[in-house]
Amino acid sequence: MKTCALCGKQIALDKYFSRKSICPHCGGDLHICLNCTFYSEKSHNKCREPKAEYQRVRDKANFCDFFTFGESQVASEDATNADARKALENLFRKGTPSSMT
């Protein structure tokens, strides 16, 4: 199962996945940068594939030949951020003397 980057719901892809495929839940395009394995906010042109052409719009269908449906980047980055925030809160909670609270 894959996850739509636009609505966050899981979808089942069939073997005929194409550029025109849409999410059954939100109706958004699926062949988009946000759903691609190579998409990265931190990379040059937001893509880790060096041969890929620059895509101006990341949430609409495109013709990129390197597209591979990956795990939801947004969900994994949000989970990583939440874990980091929780660790930071725990660090400061442990460092606070009980007499000050």
Structure characterization notes:
- With 101 residues, the chain is mainly α.
- It has one domain.
- Helix content is 23%, strand content 4%.
- The chain has one helix spanning 73-95, and strands spanning 2-3, 10-11.
- A two-stranded antiparallel sheet has the order 1-2.
- It is globular and about 55 Å long.
- 13% of the residues are buried.
- Could you spell the SSE succession in H and E letters? EEH
Quickly give the structural class. mainly alpha
Shape: globular
Low-confidence stretches: none
Assembly status: single chain
Number of strands: 2
Largest sheet: 2 strands, antiparallel
**Average pLDDT rating:** 84
- Enumerate how many helices there are, as a single number: 1
What integer value in Å does the Rg equal?
Answer: 18 Å
Strand content: under 5%
